[in-house]
């Protein structure tokens, strides 16, 4: 049985360093995640104890320079995300939010003191961060956020609510975006700050092995040193989101590959009408179509990785990758479940768990509709969502 990504010899276009990164993360996932991930998903629990292990591997903020970060190039970071999401989207989401949202916001927009205080601990996994942008009434339109920060002498007073915040309930520090008289600004809010509380969102059917929370700010008083000094305007949080979306477009390929591997293995051993179902034409058509989709998604991810490594990637190109690869991964996960038949609805098999997770991935970090319109704007010059 051929590995689906061997169909076009894709591993041969990777560098030795990239293959080493991918192999190291895959080994960690095989040892520490795969034996337990179905249980974590079923119980609705994220294993916080993994954070220091991820830190020791250098996976937290791995694409950032200095302050204990590994400084790995973008494609290597993408391949790590691929292997993490091949286990579960919740694991990749933790790493993505920690590194590309929480840490990147501090690394790119923070003061030297903020960086020295938080980045080494976040890189080591001894502290956890989150990123508070989305609000109950403002998801795709963050410019309309209602969270406000008002100056009071030398301090700021914050009031508002954020929702659907990954890592929120376990975070030691939250990057909170708020409107001010000078425009949108970012603030670092440590856990334990008076007036700052969190509530985990229960009853999820997706991303169950991940912490998702509401953040509540009621007269939260912060010194001006909590403000991210270089973050001015909406472009600051959007640049952080673009970093996270890049990891997603690789991660989705990992989820799709895991589903297709499961379907290929199952089809080779499931016997109906006297022979394995892999020998039937309809099954082979499904497998072939999915393999073509998976390989083209991987080639797209690698192309975008090379562009990012060269410093030439544009936001609409990331939108192309996120839209296509998540959409194709979700389709593959659903189709693989059909090959597994009734067994496919069991947590014993990964495809439906991946499909459930990918429903969230399709929505967060920009919905499919928003990325479609971002691409449309790049093609026509017309911002149709305004």
UniProtKB/TrEMBL annotation:
Residues 130-220 form the Acyl-CoA oxidase/dehydrogenase middle domain. It comes from the Bacteria. Its cofactor is FAD. Residues 15-125 form the Acyl-CoA dehydrogenase/oxidase N-terminal domain. PANTHER family: GLUTARYL-COA DEHYDROGENASE, MITOCHONDRIAL. Residues 233-379 form the Acyl-CoA dehydrogenase/oxidase C-terminal domain. It comes from Actinophytocola glycyrrhizae. Belongs to the acyl-CoA dehydrogenase family. This is Acyl-CoA dehydrogenase family protein. Keywords: FAD, Flavoprotein, Oxidoreductase, Transit peptide.
